[in-house]
Amino acid sequence: MVNIILAGLGLAAVGFAGKYALRQIPNAAKTFNEAMKNLPKFDSTTVANSKYYKGGFDQKMNRREAALILGISPSANKAKIKEAFKRVMAVNHPDRGGSPYIASKINEAKDFLEKHSRN
Fold this sequence. Notes:
By secondary structure, the protein is mainly alpha-helical.
């Protein structure tokens, strides 16, 4: 008999908790919508103006493209080229899940800039 009474009280508690939760949903939705309004806007122009180059590779490597691949200025010295190469290759190496094609372009960019470096 006591078990039946405890089961009934448990069901009543679950019912009241459910009723309370359902009444709080509009407030939660309002709070969520207000929080979403305060987030920074994300659109395609933000991505297009980011530090990453949006576009494919040229047919023949040039100084501009090599500098974009390594993330340095086209007039960087050999020490900066080497440092940038290590940083970019560490992230894109094929042994660490990177693309072999991207790795070859990174190597090509380093070789091009070292060959055509002024210092």
